[in-house]
Amino acid sequence: MNKYRIQLGLIIILAVIALSLLLAVNATPDMLPFFAIKRIQEKVFLKTKSTPRDRVDYMSSILESRLQELKNQVNNKSYGYILPSASRYSTLAGQIADLIVANNLADKAEDARKQFLLHRKILDEIYVIYPKNTDNMEYKYIQDDYNYLKLYLDQLEKVK
Questions:
Q1: Domain spanning 50-160: CATH 1.20.120
Q2: Would residue 77 be called left, alpha or beta, if left means φ above 0 and alpha means ψ between -120 and 50 degrees?
Q3: Which long-range contacts (CB under 8 A, 24 or more apart) does 16-25 make?
Q4: For the chain, what are the domain ranges?
Q5: pLDDT tens across 1-13, in order?
Q6: pTM for the whole thing?
C-alpha cells in the first residue's frame, strides 16, 4: 500500500512539474513563479548547446522574446517591470556580441547586426510611445537599451 502511495505522489509531483514547465513557456515578468521557471529552463537549454554558433542562435531567439517582453510591458503599462526587462535585454544582447567576438563568428556577426539594427528601430518605437509626462522615468532604460545596441554593433565590427 505504501508503495502505491509513493508512486502516486511521484506521479503527482511530475505532473505538477510538467504543467509548470508548459505554463512557463509563455510566462511574462509579472507572472513571477512561472517566469522564474522559464528563466531556469532557458539557462538549462543554453547549457545543452555545445558550440558557440548554437549558443548564439539560441540566445538570439531568447533576445527576440526579451524584446517582446519589453514591448508588452510598455503596451500593458506595467512600468514596474521595465527596468528588469530592459536590463535582461541589454545583458543578453551584450553576451551575444561578446560570444561572437570571442569566437570570431563572422557569419553570426552579420546575423546579429541585422537583428540589432531591427531591434533599435523597435526600441525607438517603444520609446516614442512611452508616456514621458508622468513621474515614471523608466523610459530612460529603453533609451539605454537602444544606446547599448549601438555599442554592441560597434563591437561586432571587430569580427571580419
A1: yes
A2: left
A3: none
A4: 1-48, 50-160
A5: 787 787 877 777 7
A6: 0.84
